[in-house]
UniProtKB/TrEMBL annotation:
GO terms for cellular component: peroxisomal membrane. Belongs to the peroxisomal membrane protein PXMP2/4 family. The chain crosses the membrane at residues 39-59, 136-158, 202-221. It is found in: Membrane. This is Mpv17/PMP22 family protein. InterPro entries: Mpv17_PMP22. Keywords: Membrane, Transmembrane, Transmembrane helix. It holds the Pfam family Mpv17_PMP22. Its main location: membrane. The lineage of its organism: Eukaryota, Fungi, Dikarya, Ascomycota, Pezizomycotina. It comes from Penicillium arizonense.
Length: 222
């Protein structure tokens, strides 16, 4: 039986190939020229996809190992109910969230005599919600920047560009590609870290990213 990494390789490669072919169709249709498959561009994009599958696969596993589990419906409900502008700017609220604290707080002292047995409801244990937030945060920062730089570097090296020119392209292309990525990736991340099993996340990202792959293919001038 194939390993999860092998299955991810195969599925991600197929999806990357589809996105590149679709990008070529769009590009050549816009130029009003007869369709001709650019085999070299297809191989370059698929090769880039093959190179980035293992680091992304193990990155998702490492994230899940460090921040395991999914947020529960109760945690989401509690977070929504307790949401307030005051909480956003409260260091204690953020500390409680990221530490997973569930400490109980009693009523103020002047109310103790009147209501001896009344206590504030204990804070909900935020482990699942906290872990979701941490995974989401790292996916939008570390993973996004790393994948963007890898795309520009690898695709241009595969096209035969020299290293000095590749670095110039990284600086030149970073802002527009990141801007485009932020328009779709947050929604994908929310789904990935709430319902998708860890070994299916790279493939899920590739499936959701067929349109993103078309964008990258067009950006790479297929």
């Amino acid at each position: 039986m194939p390993s999860p990494l092998t299955v991810t390789f195969i599925q991600a490669t197929i999806l990357n190939a589809i996105s590149n072919v679709l990008a070529q169709l769009i590009d050549q249709r816009n130029s009003k020229s007869p369709f001709h498959l650019n085999i070299i561009a297809l191989i370059q994009f698929v090769t880039y996809g093959l190179i980035i599958v293992p680091p992304n696969f193990y990155w998702q596993r490492a994230l899940e190992a460090r921040y395991p589990g999914f947020p529960t419906r109760a945690e989401f409900t509690s977070a929504v109910r307790s949401f307030s502008l005051k909480a956003i700017f409260s260091p204690r609220a953020w500390l409680a969230l990221f530490s997973g604290s569930s400490k109980e707080e009693t009523l103020p002292s002047h109310d103790k005599e009147k209501e001896k047995h009344v206590r504030w409801a204990p804070r909900v244990q935020n482990s699942g919600l906290r872990n979701f937030i941490m995974k989401f945060f790292f996916d939008q920062t570390v993973a996004s920047v790393t994948n963007l730089v890898l795309f520009v570097v690898l695709i241009n090296l595969l096209k035969g560009e020299a290293l000095p020119r590749v670095w110039e392209l990284v600086i030149e292309d970073f802002r527009p590609i990141m801007s485009a990525r932020l328009k779709y990736r947050p929604l994908v991340s929310i789904l990935m870290y709430t319902v998708i099993p860890v070994d299916r996340r790279v493939v899920f990202g590739s499936a959701c990213g067929v349109i993103w792959g078309i964008y990258l293919s067009l950006y790479a001038v297929v």
